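pasting for the record
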Amino acid sequence: MSRIAVVDDEKNIRELIRIALEREYYDILEYPDGLEAWNFFRREMPDLIILDILMPKMDGIELCKNIRNIPAGKKVPLIFLSSRDEEIDKVLGLESGADDYVTKPFSIRELTARIRSALRRIENREDNGASRHTGTAHCGELLLDENRYAVFWKNTPLEFTVTEFRIIINLAANPGFIKTRGQLMAAAFPEDNFPNERAADSHIKRIRKKFLECDENFNALEAVYGLGYRWRRAEQ
């Protein structure tokens, strides 16, 4: 049974989600603020986290960054659930390390579908790692290990979420070819019926930042104005 943490200062929201997800046989943990949730997550990480942005003691953005900064929290799916529907808030949420963003009022059916999709990505990663003996791909200085969802740039290991890894491998598998935002998000969320194309830019920005922190001259990931993104061919 997967454990899902719901972090929201609105009790009625937590109860609504808990009742709906318990019907799907999930084990639900509830936290009324970010600090209480963080004190638990530092000791033990759930299988998936749903969190609000505006909360007392520690807001969702800070909590998300804290989770991504510890080894146990780097691969856990994070979904923001917030009444803040401004574009800048969605960008901040995704760039802080979240995988997805759902705005209030929300559809329980859509939220449940996104949760199932995120958990299937984790299950598929574990199954692939157990069943395959080799699964590496090279693209110039880039090495991708599909068994461990690991990325190496110039022999330096980098930490990426499952969502980010799927975007990278979709780009690197077709160097020189332009991938639209829709194609990238479909690759990142193949099990999802509600892919958010607008989230592609935020994921790409976070991916590029991680490469640049490793190599200040990194330029393999290019934006193509009005079309999408591409991974440079080695000879370009």
